[in-house]
Sequence to fold (468 residues):
Amino acid sequence: MFLSITDVFKIGVGPSSSHTMGPMTAAAHFLADLRRGVERIPGAGDLGGVSATLHGSLAFTGRGHATDRAVRLGLLDMVPATFDADRAETLDTALAREKVLHLDGLPPLAFNPETDVIFDYGPALDLHPNGLTLRAFDTAGRPYYTQVYYSVGGGFVQTEAELRAERDSDKSAVATAEYETPYPFRTAREMLAMGEASGKTVAQMKRANEQAVHGGDVNARIDAIWSAMDSCIERGLNTDGILPGGLGVRRRARAIHDKLMAERGTNRAQPHVANDWMSVYAMAVNEENAAGGKVVTSPTNGAAGVVPAVGRYYRDHCIGATKEGLRDLLLTAAAIGGLIKHNASISGAEVGCQGEVGSAAAMAAAGLCAALGGTNEQIENAAEIALEHHLGMTCDPAAGLVQVPCIERNALGAIKAVSAASLSLRGDGAHFMPLDNCVQVMLETGREMDEKYKETSRGGIAVNLPEC
Ligand code: SF4
Fold:
């Protein structure tokens, strides 16, 4: 499967790519099926209503991640890329009052927001922890059409049939058969070999693949992604207040940024204050995400702060930074994110936070290394260092909200990414542990991780909250 830079970096809405964006997208796909005119279940009359059941992690952390609201808004024809918060509020309020969906191209559909989003706290569905069943009924309440979806991380959604087919197939065959790309690397090892044979950098190969698959102006697409990331940082740096959800977590990015600005150019700043700059950029993004704002999956919403923070650090703090360097950073990061998603997972519900913030740090480290002139070997080394030192990291968000530990975790992920890039640039790229092996270790560790540490809010920080 070819993962475009616009797949890895999707402009969307917080707080979670797998628990908010994915379910909203699944609902949109379900409506598209109904509009296409699906084959109804035998005995069904005219289409008359819909319901949704959340399974596994979507049920356990669904309220904190606003999954029920995301499904409602998806059924109201909203999609993450064009999300409009004011319109969402208006439509959601009307739905609560009328309990009917009025949608173009479909008859009025009965849907009671109070009772038609069902949280199934039993065992997760077989194929993935993030399962979602959408059902349509006829006007007499008989089953009309059912589809099971999985939100597999980063806002990606697959039907049960699609995910089963992918699991049953040879992944490498899928990767090459779907799209013709000039550099169809499926592993880091292949990426390095193709780079050596062609004399091209990772960013150049990724750019050529993007051009071959999507054509058009690749720079315009990259610049749009960066613009959305940078705007998100700016909004986060300029907003105060308490984050929603009931934990009472206060936004900190603005106050930290004000202090950093006041210290700038004085002799009061310690050398390690550079870490605070990386942190404040990441925290700004993750506070926006926690507030349900507009963010870019990088590769997920929970981990959305790391790559933008490192991009901003490069642009505003690194000597010799250029616009082209920033584009190379994002292209290289997307290449590494694609490798990790293809060969392991970027879903916290599937492999823990090592798959979210760990992947984001690997992507950012590789990207910064590229932007600072690293060789392909140094880039691979940077990604490996960053991922290796997130191995084993669990996902146990307090109250199922993407706040504690997520916001600070992104800050530390950014710091590790910059350190990994810097370390790799001090060497010649030769190193002990290949990135491919590290990705495999991450997958195996995630598979053996106890379920309570995989975005179920049943272990760790989630069950050790301070007394208030
Ligand atoms: S702990 Fe990590 S994986 Fe879990 S929700 Fe937070 S950022 Fe995502």
User: Anything to note?
Assistant: The mean pLDDT is 95. Strands lie at 11-13, 47-55, 100-101, 109-110, 117-120, 131-138, 143-153, 156-159, 294-296. The radius of gyration is 22 Å. The chain has two domains: 16-160, 185-463.
